[in-house]
Design goal:
It contains seven helices and 91 strands. It is mostly beta strands. The strands form 24 sheets. Strands 82, 83, 85, 86, 87, 88 and 89 form a seven-stranded antiparallel sheet that branches. Strands 12, 15, 16, 19, 20 and 21 form a six-stranded mixed sheet that branches. Strands 23, 26, 27, 30, 31 and 34 form a six-stranded mixed sheet that branches. Helix 3 runs antiparallel to helix 7. The longest helix is centred in the C-terminal third of the chain and has 28 residues. It is extended.
């Protein structure tokens, strides 16, 4: 009793434990399946376990021969023993009634007396072993291929050959690939013993290395494959004595690409011959192979490479290199290594309950990548809604049912082989409920949310458990009408809602819910029928779609409006596709029909239509198929050949036209033939059906006929082939045997060719259809050429010089080839004649394109007139420059008649010459052409900048420098920047322009004991170069001390140099002038000004003459330097003339500055006076800044010659943004000459800049002459004059008159008006902005008498320093930023004279001398200035 109670207690406990396990499994959504292993068991439990069921032995691929017996092994393990069956090519074999095939006791398949013939191959194929255990399931083995070797056929047979003693010999014997293992060799009809010197390659080829006399004899290969042996032709191997001369190196056998499986062996053949005897070495992927120390790599006889036990690392490109000391040759082959499929993860056994979802996992590897398929109980698993392939290879089964039980196998397969692995699925019954109450059915199950792809279900707790905190729920659902039910579990106890995903739209589903407690599952709720929402309201299919062909290349498709359009149909999309392809095309259609053109003729297409509304595409129609109409063939039949049968008949053979060009069913062929001598008499014959040959009889003997064939369809005749000729025999000949040997064979060797001639066989009664010529070095079988039977000679081309060739000639007919005739010849040695030189190119020209590019063009007299190059000639261009003198030539090749030479230095003279080369012939160098590259802005700053104090003049300094190392052109001037603040913006620095190529300059009137910083910028015709580094110089404290110049150290951005009291580089007027002296100066200046104005007015009125012409000029305001054509020396802009009688003096507004005349501060007082420039604009901006130019009137030559030293300082603030141009033009009677010259400069800056002038009490403008007469008539482009400064306006631009050389003209501005017009043009006035020292400013001279050193150019600040010069009383202008709010004022510019007139006027003015009146007036003005000096000194 106690034992029974213990057993019952144990049974109860184990059952409870099992129920809990199953319930837990059900609570995990989607994963409620137990993996491999046995579930816990207890006494009395009826839980099923996994049954071991697998294959012990599986069949393997087998090669057999006809008439032999084969065993395909198979054995499976299971309890009880399984039933074994066999499939061949997927079909079960009926072994009961089969006499030759029977099942052995262990399950193997025995096939006796294998049957194999050309038309009957019942035993060859794929075999599979199938094991079945009733009530358990079925498993299948891997598939095994049974191959039956066919009848022996020789693809190639041994050929007679010869080899020098000690060299290598190769005899080919190629048979069916499946019979290679049955090949053996015989020498003199005795079995040949193989050893290390004589080997048989895997292909069957025989290789003999280190040939000896004993190797001579007759060789043949034998195939023994079960039946009677099959022998190849015999071939004689001759061993030649060593000729003691070298022969060309050549391959007798080259390696070919191989594919091998891991573990197999690979042999890469490589055999070479030559004298001296070559050695063979191997490389793999550019690395030498060590065949001596490796165990897997072995060098076979002759040099072939044997790789045993191939691995993946052995894959790659192998190079066979043959070397005999004189030459080296190489060949290469690719070794591809494949791997059979292997399992990385095999499927595992699974326990599961009905309605659950499970996944069998399967991971495989192999090369090539294997494909995977699944088998259930021996049958292929077809993917569906419930059986899905996920993650490439895994099998997912949804909603398990009882019938899903069984064995599932994953079968992996690639080109190498296949393998399988299986697992068992067991569907468990639900455990019986334990003692205790079970929950009732959940209440009020409703679909609270219904969408197109998901449904949300909610319910209330069962009536038996109102709280339901510990209840879990399972929702079972299925499609209506489907028996397979799926389950979804709630996530947590107490949850009373579930969302079912991945549903289909517009589909009815049946739902029921069950609750579970600790005792088990309760009752199921009543089924709930819910239909998912349809997708958005899309159109239905278009009804009545029809398609019919309208021509051979077009089809018309029609349809009607969809019955359920769900709104307005916007358009239709017509899809069509050619049958047999997978590329579908589409076209948008707005109506209900469409004609598709451009289709292939007589080709079937399928069509379907999809309607679109605002929601998108609707339901597609069913496909309709139609074929385009047929047409005549568009191509002729292929491979036309003719064969003369006898003296009266010829057989014609052909193939149909290409399938794509038949354009319909071929109904027959039309044959036309004619006598070659009577081309107009054509005979036609028709061949119906698919016949591809025709015998033409009744022909004349010994007559040549022409034949052609055309294909027919129901639509007509297509194009015909070309005419093909054949000649009937003179008499009927015998073709029951091969022709006899040709009666003679003669060879005539040349250097790279051999002329072969022969005579036909003596027996003329046997048909000869042609001759086969074989030739090669040492062996006649390297190349074979077939010629027509009428031919009697042939030239073998492309041979090697000094080589021994063996030549064979055989006549052949339809029976075969006759007996060969042998001959040998040695080609002549190669002699290289001296090539005659070619003619050099002519007409070499250099076209300059830029500062670093020149195009060279030439002509070649050895070419035809059209100068078209049709051969492989090429040209060599060379070039050099003579600076420095030892420069080497540079070369480049070209295949056209021009070449673009780049990378040249700017402003450099180069010489060019060309030669032509064709093969081994070359010409001499052509005559040279010269070209100078264009200039470029300087790319380096001036060098060696030094600053020294002038002896005896402590307030005057001398700046010295050297030209830039990279001037890139003729230096036309320099600009010196100086400032007392090294950190100041560059537009706050004072500017000193220097014209020409001077390398020194002096600056006067600096403040004593003040540090100055200097930078220099070089300029050429292309613009400004970079600035030099800042050089520091401190002026001396007293007249006796001297300052020193030094390179500026890195002071940092915050460094502030010491400044004088007024922040002026020239120093403040701090001399002890009392107020009386100041009053005297002001009164004196005013008096002198009035006197000068009166003198100028009277003088200019007298000088008005009738020969004066009005001039008018135009200018362009540009960003950066002006660009012009040619050199600056070539540019001589015309002087522009303005009639002074048409001008009227305009007063200038008083400056708001309290003392504009006494202003002595060129550096701005505060930052508000200017518009700053971004400091980041470094050298690139400097190259474009401060470049301005004026034109000097020729009349002022004599005056300017005496005023070289007068150089006003000027300050040039820059504007970073282009302001509105403002014009201030004032007429003035020039003191230089009787004419008016208004010069406006163009400032090269990042933005358009404008000249400023300060307010002045004088109602005058100033003229500006910019050419320095030291440079003769050279015009200095974009450079401020060292003589005068403009006080006139900012620039305005017009383009009335252009420089004759294409250069940009300077603008001459004047605000003029007609005296009789009565209209007064307003004058634009500008407030003063940072003026430099005016010539009229009184200043205290340094102690001692006034002196002037003419050795250096200077900028005089005091007029009295130039006592021996004419005084040029002008007001200095500064360049700065204009007020942006001022609009531009109109300027009336008189028209300029014509170019010819201007040139004549310039010539006249150059020859004229200074008038006496001007001399007198200037002398009088000089006297006034002396008086002013005396007053100032006192």
């Amino acid at each position: 009793m106690a034992a029974a109670r213990g057993a019952r207690r144990l049974l109860s406990t184990s059952s409870l434990w099992l129920c809990c396990l199953l319930l837990l499994g059900r609570r995990e959504p989607g994963a409620a399946a137990a993996r491999s292993g046995s579930p816990p068991q207890s006494p009395g439990a009826s839980i099923r376990t996994f049954t071991p069921f697998y294959f012990l032995v599986e069949p393997v691929d087998t090669l057999s021969v006809r008439g032999s017996s084969v065993i395909l092994n198979c054995s499976a393990y299971s309890e009880p023993s399984p039933k074994i069956e066999w499939k061949k090519d997927g079909t079960f074999l009926n072994l009961v009634s089969d006499d030759r095939r029977q099942l052995l006791p262990d399950g193997s398949l025995f096939i006796s007396n294998v049957v194999h013939s050309k038309h009957n191959k019942p035993d060859e194929g794929y075999y599979q072993c199938v094991a079945t255990v009733e009530s358990l399931g079925t498993i299948v083995s891997r598939t095994a291929k049974l191959t039956v070797a066919g009848l022996p056929r020789f693809a190639s047979q041994p050929e007679p050959s010869s080899a020098y003693a000690g060299n290598n010999a190769v005899l080919n014997c190629e048979v069916n690939a499946d019979l290679v293992s049955f090949v053996r060799w015989e020498q003199n009809r005795q079995p040949l013993l193989l050893d290390d010197r004589v080997i048989k390659l895997p292909s069957g080829t025989l290789v003999i290395s280190n040939v000896t006399e004993g190797d001579e004899g007759l060789y043949r290969c034998v195939v023994e494959s079960g039946g009677p042996p099959k022998y190849s032709d015999e071939a004689e191997l001759k061993v030649l004595p060593d000729p003691e001369i070298t022969s060309n190196l050549m391959f007798l056998k080259q390696p070919s690409s191989l594919v091998r499986v891991i573990g197999q062996s690979a042999v890469l053949p490589c055999v070479a011959s030559g004298l001296p005897t070559p050695t063979i070495r191997w490389m793999k992927n550019e690395e030498a192979l060590d065949t001596e120390s490796s165990e897997r790599l072995v060098l076979l006889a002759g040099g072939s490479l044997d790789i045993s036990d191939v691995t993946e690392d052995d894959a790659g490109t192998y190079f066979c290199i043959a070397d005999n000391g004189n030459e080296t040759i190489e060949a290469q082959a690719e070794l591809t290594v494949q791997a059979q499929p292997e399992f990385l993860k095999q499927p595992a056994n699974i326990y599961a309950h009905e309605s659950m979802d499970i996944v069998f996992e399967c991971e495989v590897t192999g090369k090539p990548t294997p494909t995977v398929k699944w088998v259930k109980n021996g049958d292929m698993v077809i993917p569906s809604d419930y059986f899905k392939i996920v993650k490439e290879h895994n099998l997912q089964v949804l909603g398990l049912v009882k019938s899903d039980e069984g064995f599932y196998q994953c079968i992996a397969e690639n080109d190498v082989g296949n393998t399988q692995a299986g697992a068992q699925l067991i569907i468990l019954e639900h455990a019986p409920a334990t003692t205790g109450p079970l929950p009732s059915a959940p209440r009020d199950v409703v679909a609270s949310l219904v969408s197109t792809r998901f449904i949300k279900l909610t319910w209330r707790t069962p009536a038996s458990d109102p709280h339901g905190d510990n209840l879990t729920y399972s929702v079972f659902y299925t499609k209506e009408g489907i028996a397979r039910e799926r389950v979804e579990n709630t996530s947590h106890p107490g949850d009373m809602q579930v969302t079912i995903q991945n549903l289909m739209p517009a589909t009815v589903y049946i739902f029921r819910v069950m609750a579970q407690n600790k005792h088990g599952s309760g009752e199921s709720s009543a089924p709930l029928r819910v239909e998912t929402q349809p997708e958005v309201q899309l159109p239905g299919p278009a009804p009545n779609i029809r398609a019919y062909a309208s021509s051979p290349t077009s089809i018309i498709v029609t349809w009607e409006t969809p019955l359920s359009g769900n709104g307005e149909i916007q358009n239709y999309k017509l899809y069509y596709m050619e049958k047999g392809t997978d590329k579908e095309q589409d076209v948008d259609v707005a109506s209900h029909s469409y004609t598709i053109n451009g289709l292939k003729k007589y080709t079937e297409y399928s069509f379907r239509v999809v309607a679109y509304n605002k929601h998108g595409p609707g339901v597609s129609t069913q496909d309709v198929a139609v074929r385009t109409l047929s047409d005549v063939p568009s191509a002729a039949p292929q491979n036309l050949s003719v064969e003369v049968r006898n003296s009266k008949s010829i057989v014609i053979h052909w193939q149909p036209p290409p399938l794509a060009t038949q354009n319909g069913q071929i109904t027959g062929y039309k044959i036309r033939y004619r006598k070659a001598s009577r081309k107009s008499d054509v005979t036609e014959t028709l061949v119906t059906g698919t016949q591809l040959s025709q015998l033409i009889e009744g022909l004349d003997r010994g007559t040549e006929y022409n034949f052609r064939v055309a294909a027919l369809t129901v639509n007509g005749t297509g194009p015909a082939t070309d005419w093909l000729s054949a000649e009937t025999f003179e008499s009927d000949l015998d073709e029951t045997r091969v022709p006899e040997v040709p009666s003679s064979l003669h060879v005539r060797p040349l250097v790279t060719s051999i002329v072969v001639s022969w005579t036909p066989p003596e027996n003329q009664n046997i048909v000869v259809r042609g001759y086969a010529i074989g030739y090669g070095i040492g062996s006649p079988h390297a190349q074979t050429i077939k010629v027509d039977y009428k031919q009697r000679y042939y030239t073998i081309e492309n041979l090697d010089p000094s080589s021994h060739y063996v030549i064979t000639l055989k006549a052949f007919n339809n029976v075969g080839e006759g007996i060969p005739l042998y001959e040998s010849a040695v080609t002549r040695p190669h002699t290289v004649p001296d090539p005659t030189p070619m003619m050099p190119p002519v007409g070499v020209q250099a076209s300059i394109l830029s500062h670093d590019t020149i195009r060279i063009t030439w002509a070649d007299n050895s070419l035809p007139k059209h100068q078209k190059i049709t051969d492989s000639r090429y040209y060599t261009v060379r070039w050099k420059t003579n600076i420095p003198a030892n420069t080497k030539y540079k070369n480049a090749n070209a295949t056209t008649l021009n070449y673009l030479v780049t990378g040249l230095k700017p402003n450099t003279l180069y010489e060019f010459s060309v030669m032509v080369t064709k093969g081994r012939r070359s010409s001499t160098w052509s005559m040279t052409a010269h070209g100078t590259t264009f200039e470029l802005v300087p790319t380096s700053p001036p060098k060696d900048v030094t600053v020294v104090s002038k002896e005896g003049k402590p307030r005057t300094i001398i700046v010295n420098w050297q030209p830039p190392s990279e001037a890139n052109g003729k230096i036309t001037g320099y600009i010196i920047y100086y400032s007392t603040d090294v950190n100041a913006e560059i537009h706050d620095w004072v500017i000193e322009p220097v014209v020409g190529n001077r390398l020194t300059h002096q600056i006067q009137e600096l403040t004593l004991d003040t540090p100055y910083y200097f930078k220099i910028q070089a300029r050429n015709s292309k613009g400004m170069g970079p600035m030099s580094e800042a050089v520091q110089f401190r002026t001396p404290k007293a007249s006796g001390s001297a300052g020193k110049g030094s390179r500026l150290p890195d002071l940092g951005s915050d460094y502030k140099p010491p400044m004088s009291g007024s922040n002026s580089p020239h120093g403040s007027p701090t001399s002890p002038l009392d107020s009386n002296m100041l009053l005297v100066i002001i009164v004196s200046v005013g008096v002198i000004t009035i006197v000068v104005v009166v003198i100028i007015a009277v003088f200019c009125t007298r000088r008005t003459t009738s020969h004066q012409k009005k001039k008018r000029a135009a200018c362009k305001s540009v960003n950066g330097s002006h660009k012009y054509k040619g050199n600056s020396k070539d540019v001589k802009p015309p002087d522009l003339w303005i009639h002074h009688e048409r001008l009227e003096l305009k007063p200038i507004d008083k400056s708001p500055d309290p003392n504009p005349i006494m202003t002595d501060t060129p550096i701005p007082r505060n930052s508000q006076d200017i518009t700053p420039v971004d400091n980041s604009m470094d050298s690139s901006i400097h190259q474009r800044r401060n470049s301005y130019r004026g034109h000097e009137s020729e009349d002022s030559m004599s005056t300017l010659a005496g005023r070289r030293g007068m150089r006003p300082k000027m300050m040039m603030p820059f504007d970073s943004q282009p302001p509105q141009p403002v014009i201030s033009a004032h007429p003035i009677h020039s003191l230089d000459n009787p004419h008016h010259h208004f010069h406006s400069s163009s400032l090269a800056s990042p933005a358009r800049s404008h000249l400023y002038h300060p307010g002045s009490p004088w109602p005058l403008g100033t003229s500006m002459s910019l050419s320095d007469r030291a440079n003769s008539t050279e015009s200095v482009r974009n450079t401020p004059s060292t003589d005068t400064m403009p006080a006139s306006s900012s620039q305005t631009c017009c383009t009335d008159h252009q420089d004759p050389e294409g250069a940009t003209s300077s603008s001459y501005l004047a605000s003029s008006q007609e005296e009789d017009s009565g209209q007064s043009l307003p004058t634009a006035h500008v407030r003063p902005s940072h003026p430099l020292k005016s010539f009229a400013v009184p200043a205290i001279p340094p102690p001692g008498p006034p002196t002037y050193d003419p050795a250096l150019p200077s900028t005089p600040l005091l007029s009295q320093q130039a006592l021996n010069h004419h005084i040029h009383a002008v007001k200095t202008a500064s360049i700065g930023t204009l007020g942006r709010s001022r609009p531009p004022m109109p300027v009336v510019v008189p028209s300029a004279p014509e170019v010819q007139e201007t040139t004549r006027m310039l010539e006249d003015s150059e020859s004229s001398s200074e008038p006496d009146e001007l001399t007198k007036e200037m002398a009088h003005l000089e006297g006034l200035m002396k008086d002013l000096n005396a007053i100032t000194t006192a």
